[in-house]
Amino acid sequence: MRIMREALAGTLESSDLMVRIAPRAEGLEIVLQSEVIHQFGIQIEKVVRETLARLDVVDALVVIEDKGALDCVIKARVQTAVLRATVAPGDALSPRRIADAPVDWSALS
Amino acid sequence: MKLRRSMLFLPGSNAAMLSTAFVFRPDSIMFDLEDAVSLREKDAARILVFHALQMPVYRDIETVVRINPLSSPFGLTDLEAVVRAGVDVVRLPKTDSADDVRALEREVERIERDCGRAVGSTRLMAAIESASGVVNAVAIATASPRLIGIALAGFDYVMDMQTERGDGTELFYARCAVLHAARYARIDAFDVVYADVNNDAGFLQEVELIKRLGFNGKSLINPRQIDLLHNAFAPSQEEVDYSHRVVAAAEQGERQGLGVVSLSGKMIDAPVIEHARVVLRRAEASGVRK
After folding, report:
1. Distance of CA B241 to the CA centre of its chain
2. 3-state class of B11 per DSSP?
3. Contact across the interface for B77 and A99, Cβ inside 8 Å
């Protein structure tokens, strides 16, 4: 999937994370901030990379601010940010526009 | 015996609640994609719930998802996500007629076939939230063999009736209509949420009423209400002791070939014996009232 625009997903509440994704010319750059980075930093980055790979995202800047989220929440927030970021920049990022976007649920499993 | 006393509502967009709610041990957990989620977060909540449903911690709790109405731009995508994720029960909001249930059933079956899930394994429940839904309650309750229950949703209903929540008088007809429809269809009946979460006495008064009417349980919006509800629904020690005596007397009568037996001078017939067995099954499943 091609990242067409900057997009956000998630919150800064406890057990959640905020994901910001933006277009990048070549390759992936992941910036990770977490309250539990020493214990779980490697695992969080692994989940982010695997999630992006399943969605075939190869060029993107991904900034994660983690507040102690479980793996499945990390996965969900990264997927949401990616799907929002694949809406063409000229289109309004409206709930209706997002609702109409086709979702390949097998790629999100 | 599957108990459905407590159905705990969780906003589908709240990661912290979705990650931890299993510890409260309600009979069913209901992830909400409808009213508790803002329009801008519908996509995020749907994906979060898609993953939450697959968490191993929810394997032994019945999972329910309230989707958006199929007539909205979000309902069908919600359904695609939750059926594929293995939800136990889909809760349809604003059910006004049997056609609403049948339309849902058709879509569920299509998705089950698409994703390889056993056809019929996704169960349904219908929330009745209008005068039209109450009037059509019997048709709704009998619209699909997938239905496990029907629920009354109070806030939209009282708005439709041009009144407001009060002491319960405003819900009396709807409660009785929904309950009779559920019993006629041999499915479960769920009462409205009690929104004043700091008023335990008021909550317990309402629980006592709906229990006496015959409801299976209640939708809840705060985990604090779970233990209160479960305890109120549990049989007392006196009821359990009496039920043991009834069953023992009935078994003895059967061994002696008697059609009707008596216990302490009172006749015990089939409905009394059946009720005693229900009390004992309930005590086994839920414990005895504290």
Report:
1. 28
2. strand
3. yes
Give the pair of three-digit tokens for residue B5.
């006393």
Domains and their CATH numbers in chain A: 7-97 (3.30.230)
The conformation of residue B91, written as its DSSP 8-state character, comes to E
- Chain B CA closest to residue A81: B44
Which CATH class, in words, describes the domain spanning B6-233?
alpha beta
Other CB atoms within a 10 A radius of the CB of residue A88 amount to 10
Question: Mutate which of A12, A73, A106 to disrupt the B interface (most B C-beta within 10 Å)?
Answer: A73
Query: What is the rounded CA–CA span in Å between residue B51 and residue B86?
Result: 10
Predicted ipTM of the assembly: 0.93
What's the average model confidence in pLDDT over A40-68? 96
The share of chain A scoring above pLDDT 90, in percent, equals: 77
Three-state secondary-structure class, residue B264: coil
Contact B80 A105 (CB under 8 A): yes
Domain residue ranges in chain B: 6-233, 237-286
Whether B21 shows a pLDDT value over 90: the answer reads: yes
